[in-house]
């Protein structure tokens, strides 16, 4: 919780803009899913933090790697110790831009394009994806689904379990943003 608060404070300082255009999400849901013939693996976190500057379209999203929960305790241990090396790379982060303008005064559902860099396991890679934004009475709900290729982030899978983990995992994001007060 302390890290999430610090993240938000630093992010707000870096935007250096007024409060009406800043939206914050403190409990964003992030999950990833890997499916193979051998096994399905899913990790879920509900502690992601994100900030959007509605004027510039800038978006920052962070999640602690150790916050992901798995059905099997052993999967969680392997995820943090062997694959993500969470002690060395404690967070995954996205910094990018929402390409279309956000109008909080007009309720509705909007499809937008988001471009930026996703840093996982210490490796940053450019991504572009579609997201759904639902504006209702000044609240913004965002959702996105995209694929992440494990090899692109230098995550090594031991040959012994290579058939258990897909080459690409599906990442799902859901966040509710409220205006900074």
TrEMBL record:
InterPro entries: Lipid/polyisoprenoid-bd_YceI, TTHA0802/YceI-like_sf. Residues 27-176 form the Lipid/polyisoprenoid-binding YceI-like domain. Gene3D superfamilies: Lipid/polyisoprenoid-binding, YceI-like. Residues 1-19 form the signal peptide. Keywords: Signal. This is Lipid/polyisoprenoid-binding YceI-like domain-containing protein.
